[in-house]
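Section 5: illustrative case.
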């Protein structure tokens, strides 16, 4: 599956390497060498995915990401981070990145991650709405309502909610959720899943946050009991 990819990376050698790796996989690639140009490019036309470095001159990758999401862009974003910077990864996922890749990385891994982003995007087809207690979602449009009040979720939070709703009442392990969200097993040293669950609960607010139950030592489940309205 090939797509149109924007690469925002300031190091010329790395930028060239990423471009040639993606081009070899059949993608059409555009580039930006700093955050301001990257944001302008990403805002001015449709891309199927972004490969975004965090450390950039001008505005950094995290700020670029936040600004894009704040303007409603849901383009899938793969963040490039340094291997040691756990705080960067958590901040990136919190800000709405879809996945991250620590530098240095193997070319095949970059291609695999980008293909996974494109595949998930392609799988999102409009379907009938799903209802569970106070929660109502429209798959395909990324819209969510709690007791008829619309909530704004990041793409990740939305996918997490859909996973829980599709298997409401079942306990999903962190592995189940990680495979569903990123296509790979849970990394026990990472608290990414828990961060997303915490954020999702916060956004669901009083009306529905209690619907997502923590099952100690196992994972999470969405309660199937009908929530009180109001
Ligand atoms: Ca950089």
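Designed sequence:
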């Amino acid at each position: 599956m090939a797509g149109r990819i924007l690469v925002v990376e300031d190091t010329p050698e790395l930028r060239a390497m990423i471009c040639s790796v993606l081009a070899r996989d059949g993608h059409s690639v555009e580039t930006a060498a700093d955050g301001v140009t990257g944001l302008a490019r990403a805002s001015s036309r449709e891309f199927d995915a972004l490969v975004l470095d965090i450390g950039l001159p001008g505005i950094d990758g995290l700020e670029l990401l936040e600004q894009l999401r704040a303007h409603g862009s849901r383009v899938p974003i793969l963040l490039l981070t340094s291997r040691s910077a756990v705080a960067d990864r958590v901040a990136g996922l919190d800000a709405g990145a879809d996945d991250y890749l620590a530098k240095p990385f193997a070319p095949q891994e970059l291609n695999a991650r980008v293909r996974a982003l494109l595949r998930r995007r392609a799988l999102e087809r409009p379907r009938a709405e799903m209802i569970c207690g106070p929660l109502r979602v429209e798959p395909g449009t990324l819209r969510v309502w709690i007791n008829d009040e619309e909530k704004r979720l990041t793409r990740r939070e939305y996918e997490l909610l859909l996973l829980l709703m599709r298997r409401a009442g079942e306990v999903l392990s962190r592995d189940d959720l990680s495979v569903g969200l990123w296509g790979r097993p849970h990394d026990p040293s990472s608290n990414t899943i828990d961060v997303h669950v915490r954020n999702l609960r916060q956004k669901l607010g009083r009306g529905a946050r209690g619907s997502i139950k923590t099952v100690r030592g196992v994972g999470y489940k969405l309660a199937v009991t009908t929530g009180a309205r109001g």
